[in-house]
Amino acid sequence: MADTAITMRQVTPDIAEGGDADPALSARLDVLDLPAGGFTAAARKDALARLRAVGLPKPRDEYWRYTNPAAFNAPVPDPIPLAEQGPDSPLFLERKRLTLVFVDGAFDAAASDDLALEGVEVGLLSTADADETHWSGEIYGRLEAAAQERVARPMAALNTAAARDGVLVRVTGQPSKPIHIIHRRKDESADVYYHHVIRLEPGAELTLLETGMTGARSNFVAEVDLAEGARFHHITAKRAGHEKLGWGGVFARVAAEAVFKSFTLSVNGTMMRHEAIIDIVGDDAVAHVAAAVLGDANRGPFHHDDTVFITHSAERCESRQVFKKVLKNGAKGIFQGKILVEPGAQKTDGYQISQALLLDEDSQFLGKPELEIYADDVQCSHGSTTGAIDETALFYLRSRGVPRDRAIVLMVLSFLADALEEVEDESLREEISDRLDAWLTRHA
Amino acid sequence: MLKINNLHAKLEDEDKQILKGVSLEVPAGEVHAIMGPNGSGKSTTSYVLSGRDGYEVTDGSATLYGEDLLEMEPEERAAAGLFLAFQYPVEIPGVGNMTFLRTALNAQRKRRGEEELSAAEFLKLIREKGKALNIDADMLKRPVNVGFSGGEKKRNEILQMAVLEPKMCILDETDSGLDVDAMRLVADGVNALRAPDRAFLVITHYQRLLDHIRPDVVHIMSDGKIVKTGGPELALEVEQNGYADLLSEVA
Ligand SMILES: Nc1ncnc2c1ncn2[C@@H]1O[C@H](COP(=O)(O)OP(=O)(O)OP(=O)(O)O)[C@@H](O)[C@H]1O
Ligand SMILES: [Mg+2]
């Protein structure tokens, strides 16, 4: 089916039915050329209805108090010069991997490898959506919708309605190499939406690497469905540049004995918000979400928000949230992390730590940990700290001859170490750590 | 080698004078001990010499080989040959012992215009030095001092000293918290480093350490000043009679 654009005029009656038109939302949708979708058509329609029902995020919404949604709500982003892009991040380029390149959120076949990897079926939303049915139809927009029952996530619903491309990956085996998605930019005003669906069948394994920079503004959703005993590692390195505006949401469903692990490295960006919504639904499953964020506001504002919601509804599961932010020159970091333990989710082991290292007095961190527990035999802990460089440790290093700048880099790396530990593969971890080291050294 | 003359220092943020005219001189090849009651300013002297923030030098001077120490950054002092074994070695989670020490050594060498050591050369060096101090590969892999026992931390200080080969070594109560065997290891480590072009300033409360590391000169510090200087017998006197007699004698 060809992409039939649903314009605002066509959908206006729905708003009239809802009664309360949100002019900001109308303006937002007006400039979008929403695809009708093939197998995703129903999901897109539902998403639009959800979005209309809740409206765009407002500063008074519970999870938008610390992050002003204005820039996400604006109909179009301000352009960002392409010069900000530079070459691809050098991360992971030397590895054996299946490379998929997206330019402003659209798949670039010429720049990508053939979509062939043993044990994996790699598809694309842009091509698959011409069909009326697809395996990912059971997931596309569905995990996102389920998560909305607890907390409204309008940006995610907008994505489901608007996204035209993204990977549809189904893994049945244990591929010998990771998939590496590289994002590039071409249009300095692009407002980018992409949507991945990832399904790991029982016992399957996948490492997904994602690097690069996309759009003047980006909005991504990844829906990750892990069957029994599957193991998924998602490692993202966002090299946002200084003027980047982005919202992203990962929605995961984790079945029994499955393992979900994500690590995100974010370097700079004007206004970034990452959400991770994870439902642990099977016994003995594991979900870890970690991030290392480096923000320097020397060339303009820096605001980075991580918002996490992990729900335990099965027994003996483990969840870990490890968030570390290094903030400089008035940068602002936010962490909102929730652990919800449903009745019956006994022996839950939930852990959450959010920490900020403020390199000056102008930077700011707000941590909002939440625990909501309805089972009696669980172990949940959380902590949030904000601190400066430990002067005693700094002196100790310098007294051994380590120059001040180098000592600070070592201490920043040491601060980030717990988050990096969440990258299970040692060689990946070392590569990321080396890159971080080089970056910090250049920016000391 | 090290010359401290009439050194006065106060706390930076408080109107509190701690060093009130410290003078002493340690020639190359010698071992000097500083003893003195708690709070008399021994650690402060070592911090001011090595350049820790928080103190303001209000008068006096300190030179190493004639170079003004007080004008240098802490890392420059280290490269100039000064080393302080801390009374309370610092834990630095996330920074590996090896990374730390190799970074330190190579930074010092670079500053002095010497060739940096490769990873392999460094590994060989640290294994060899570690062995003598009973510090195994596992400890070396761990983050700096994290999870080390009190005695292990002190041994790690001496290991750093052995690897960095400084000219002027200040040891601040390296003996406290050591069991008898560890004390011997530490003393052996120090004695192995004794050389005609190297000097030691050993801060201690106990004669015990000085049995192993024989000092040439003993200084007694009280209330921010060196109040008495003598031979090894001064340490024995402190051990037997405490400070009361000594201090009333000089008062
Ligand atoms: N940063 C500081 N803030 C407040 N007081 C300080 C500070 N540094 C040193 N002092 C004070 O200065 C005095 C000297 O302290 P210092 O640690 O040098 O003593 P010391 O001779 O090493 O004692 P000890 O034998 O107990 O190790 C003490 O009264 C101590 O409380
Ligand atoms: Mg002391």
From TrEMBL, chain A:
Superkingdom per UniProt: Bacteria
Lineage of the species this protein comes from: Bacteria, Pseudomonadati, Pseudomonadota, Alphaproteobacteria, Rhodobacterales
InterPro entries: Fe-S_cluster_assembly_SufBD, SUF_FeS_clus_asmbl_SufBD_core, SUF_FeS_clus_asmbl_SufBD_sf
Biological processes per GO annotation: iron-sulfur cluster assembly
The protein's name: Fe-S cluster assembly protein SufD
Annotated SUPFAM superfamilies: Stabilizer of iron transporter SufD
Annotated source species: Paracoccus isoporae
SUF system FeS cluster assembly SufBD core domain mapped to chain residues: 188-415
Signal peptide: none
Automatic annotation (TrEMBL), chain B:
Record-linked SMART domains: AAA (SM00382)
Residue intervals of the ABC transporter domain: 2-248
PROSITE patterns in UniProt: ABC_TRANSPORTER_1, ABC_TRANSPORTER_2
Cited SUPFAM superfamilies: P-loop containing nucleoside triphosphate hydrolases (SSF52540)
InterPro entries the record matches: AAA+_ATPase (IPR003593), ABC_transporter-like_ATP-bd (IPR003439), ABC_transporter-like_CS (IPR017871), FeS-cluster_ATPase_SufC (IPR010230), P-loop_NTPase (IPR027417)
Pfam families: ABC_tran
Keyword Nucleotide-binding: yes
Keywords for this protein: ATP-binding, Nucleotide-binding
Statement: the UniProt record of this protein carries the keyword Hydrolase: no
GO molecular function: ATP binding; ATP hydrolysis activity
NCBIfam families for this protein: sufC (TIGR01978)
Family to which this protein belongs: Belongs to the ABC transporter superfamily. Ycf16 family.
Protein name (Swiss-Prot/TrEMBL): Fe-S cluster assembly ATP-binding protein
Native organism: Paracoccus isoporae
